[in-house]
Amino acid sequence: MKLNEEQLSFLKNLIEPARIQIRDEIGEDYSHDELGGVYGYPDVLIKVVSTGEISQIMTYAYEQDIPVVVRGAGTGLVGAAVAVRGGIMLETTLMNHILELDEENLTVTVESGVLLMELAQFAEEHQFLYPPDPGEKSATIGGNISTNAGGMRAVKYGVTRDYVRGLTVVLPNGRVERFGGKIVKNSSGYSLKDLMIGSEGTLGIITEAILKLVPLPDKSVSLLVPYKKMEDAIGTVPEIIKLKTTPTAIEFMEREVLLFAEEFLGKKFPDTKSSAYLLLTFDGNSASQVEGEYEKVARYCLEHGAEDVFIVDTPERKDSVWSARGAFLEAIKASTSEMDECDVVVPRNRVADFIHFTHDLSRKHDIRIPSFGHAGDGNLHIYICRDELKENLWKQKLTEVFAEMYEMAMRLGGAVSGEHGVGYAKKKYLEDQLGEVQIEIMRGIKKVFDPKGLLNPEKVI
């Protein structure tokens, strides 16, 4: 939709000039998200500063039938924050204030534009932990909530949904509602708060969040465990879980990806001689508790195929290992001309089957498919790399590989997204997974919240 001059004039009078851009003034970065592949420019970009301001804009947009898309830091990977139908884009990065730390209720209240790394640092400075730990630390909390982001600590602590106590939301018609609060239990009707989490900006605009914190663990140690084969590494994971230990994270990685990260960061990883690795972390409030857990796991790994176990317990080693793990996405991206991502989740005892399947796919289609992911919760990040392929062949192979991977994920009892969402790019695969009845229920929910279909149109369903 193209806004007319009267509509543009209204918005210009509502917002101070430094925070509004019109058409050609809008930079190329705002036409796509982090991965690219889905493009579209808004007619107007507004850097919003408050719930009240968003309410005013949405009231007008609803009256005028103007589509609206909300964008945080733009780090998404499925085109969810792209203005595919033009209209208004609201950027929330100026709503970046931590509003309250409630140490008695173990909650922190933040605006939606606060970055994950800012919240994590704030919590740690006050001896608390905000457990959700997605790989992209520069994402906004609003974006994390909108996609129900997971991350590496999900195996022990859970995902973003498990830490959202309350939300302030602007509805598509401009009304402001507060869902949930600081209470721990709530069995009072449908959980509208939980409907908002993971809805990718299609039901309402999250402006503030009350988040649960936990006390900061005193001790944290990681283990880096090399294996000759990926199947051996991942096959160990269900058995590790059955040892009655509680690892904070269980990551898997292949040698190829480690080498990309070394080159990308310009620093050496502790070991790159093996084909596959598990990276486990343990935390707790006493050294004896943490040592007891990681020693039991280390002993089991060595007795069941591990080539070695490296203890990562110094700041230097932790930086070497975890900086490499954090750079995997950017390192793979730097190794190719273009890429797309498959963010599937399968039962954790089927992870090895799925990774083996991607190796077969790579050979079958003669295309590079590196991967890494969260072995502890079955969430896999698979990347299809274009390299030197011509445009037509790249699009053909991408379509074929995606179709086969999502079909296999569903066959193994999995789902099309573990933490990055559906957005615009993965809608077809969601329909294949859920079927007509569930998609119609979701459309019904969308219609109740957004009867005109103005908020983040053409996303998810």
TrEMBL record:
InterPro entries attached to this UniProt entry: FAD-bd_oxidored_4_C (IPR004113), FAD-bd_PCMH (IPR016166), FAD-linked_OxidoTrans_Type4 (IPR051914), Oxid_FAD_bind_N (IPR006094)
Alphabetic keyword roster: Flavoprotein, Oxidoreductase
Domain FAD-binding PCMH-type: 38-216
The UniProt record lists the keyword Flavoprotein: yes
A Pfam family of this chain: FAD_binding_4
Keyword Oxidoreductase tagged: yes
PROSITE patterns in the record: FAD_PCMH (PS51387)
Protein name (Swiss-Prot/TrEMBL): FAD-binding protein
Species this protein is from: Faecalicatena faecalis
